[in-house]
Write a structure and sequence with these properties.
The chain has 3 helices and 3 strands, in the order βαββαα.
Length: about 100
């Protein structure tokens, strides 16, 4: 039996190393992209929930489903990630991008 998709948490190589040994694709997202609700954390500024799959397309689809376009309001790093992506500073003003 082969597993099509799997989810794992990454702090320091916990997605990428097993994926490399198993010959599958492992995607470690930017901290804050996926919700860490319910994850027993090892490092608040490095933990993230990533995806495993047999190919890049499936891993990307799973990661997209994990993200879901929703920011976890209970995770301060998710909020920081969103502000960075939108180009907002601490006062919710647009920063000039160079």
């Amino acid at each position: 039996m082969q597993i099509l998709l799997a989810v794992g948490t990454e702090t320091h190589g916990s997605v990428l190393h097993p994926a490399g040994h198993a010959g599958v694709v492992g995607l470690k997202p930017t901290v804050g992209l996926t919700s860490r609700s319910g994850v027993i954390g090892g490092s608040h500024n490095r933990d993230s929930v990533g995806s495993f799959a047999r190919n890049v397309k499936d891993a990307a689809l799973l990661l997209d489903a994990l993200w879901g376009g929703v920011v976890d309001e209970n995770d301060p790093y998710a909020f920081t990630f969103l502000m960075f992506e939108l180009g907002l500073n601490a006062d919710n003003n647009m920063d000039a991008k160079v």
